[in-house]
Write a structure and sequence with these properties.
Length: 256
């Protein structure tokens, strides 16, 4: 299960079912759970925890020090949960003391070739980063978001659940849940209706979100008045409630 050319520190903890391919390097603070497979030339370093059933392809780098000049060698982590696919040349850096010292990634995510996850990012479940998608530090991504190829996301930006950013875009402000964004200075282009239908959102839920989108982004009201009107007109909708809560919690501002 472990190729003879792999270099594994004796202090690393690997489940007996872990497969390690040729020329992989695994550092002393690394722990890898059962069923995970590493192809050739994978480097896993630092305080890194890899969950169950992950597939890590050749030349990926996980747990390297953050690309942050404030980092001074303190203990910090990458925590990768279960059933994640890490394709070729993906880089995932560990956290800094500025934000709790952890880069965390949930379950069932796909990171395509050359994508980058910077320090202190918090990524949910079922997220897709397409080829060469690049995340700055401290980014939060909710479940089922899709980041297109060659997309750059500015540090501290949040991406809402079931949102999608088109390829070659640049996101400088938060992308609200359930929406589509695109452009060199990303703008919203309506709801991600196709994605919502694929994930079996009810017709009522989609209708409520469409109404909320019109009020918030097309009515011409100030954002606070638009949110108040949305709350008063649309009741008992968990999706709309989440959309409103996400917008209210924005610190960098919302993409319009």
């Amino acid at each position: 299960m472990i190729h003879k050319t792999a270099i594994i520190d004796p202090k690393a903890e690997l489940d007996s079912s872990v497969e390690v391919g040729p020329y992989c390097i695994i550092g002393p603070q690394v722990k890898i759970d059962k069923g995970t497979k590493l192809s050739s030339h994978v480097v896993i370093d630092g305080w890194t925890r890899i969950g169950e059933g992950c597939r890590i392809f050749q030349f990926a780098s996980i747990g390297a020090i953050p690309q942050d000049l404030k980092y001074k060698g303190e203990e910090s982590w990458v925590i990768l949960a279960n059933n994640n696919t890490i394709r070729e040349f993906v880089t995932i850096n560990r956290g800094t003391s500025q934000s709790g010292g952890k880069t965390t990634i949930g379950n069932n995510n796909l990171f395509m070739a050359y994508s980058h996850v910077a320090h202190d990012c918090k990524i949910g479940n079922h997220v897709i980063l397409a080829n060469a998608a690049t995340l700055g530090g401290h980014i939060q991504i909710e479940d089922y978001a899709i980041v297109g190829g060659l997309v750059a996301v500015h540090q501290f930006v949040r991406l809402g659940c079931h949102s999608i950013i088109g390829g070659s875009s640049a996101a400088r402000q938060d992308i609200p849940p359930y929406t589509m964004a695109n452009g060199q200075r990303a703008k919203l282009f309506g709801l991600n209706t196709v994605g919502l239908k694929r994930h079996n959102f009810s017709n009522e839920a989609i209708s409520n979100l469409k109404k909320a989108y019109r009020i918030i982004f097309r009515s011409g009201l100030t954002i606070n008045k638009a949110l108040d009107q949305t709350q008063s007109e649309i009741k008992n909708s968990p999706e709309v409630d989440h959309l409103i809560s996400f917008i209210k919690g924005s610190e960098r501002g919302i993409t319009h």
